[in-house]
Amino acid sequence: MRRVILAVTGTIAGLVALLGFRSHVPSAAPLVSGTSPGTGTAGSGASASASALPAGAHTVDGAAANTVYGPVQVQVVVRDDKITGVNILEQPHGTVNDLQIGQFAFPKLISETLAAQNAHVDAVSGASYTSAGYITSLQSAVDKGA
pTM of the entire structure? Predict the structure, then answer.
């Protein structure tokens, strides 16, 4: 009888602790921005204004791609028909893990984009959904005229 009482009490205490747990959710998501050296468009990740772009450069926003963890949207900076930079306009930010994945994956994806000069880039291991959203949005921007 004692064992039953201890088991029930332990189970109730565990459930109360589990139900009372609150995970930390950040209030704002930091956005990643990436450009090649010397373009002058590195910044907060928000839309680059026309005055911040070098002469002859323009931006093309890709469509927001919905992923399991949230939307991903990129902006491509183009100069002389070459991709000179990629800004992340929107990224998953529901949990701290989403932000960490973005901080890890986006610089790699941006680097590959600048090297490939198209949307044919490899997904980052451990960030499959985020990579797929990035590639989809990037392809949309390329199709629009990047």
Answer: 0.66
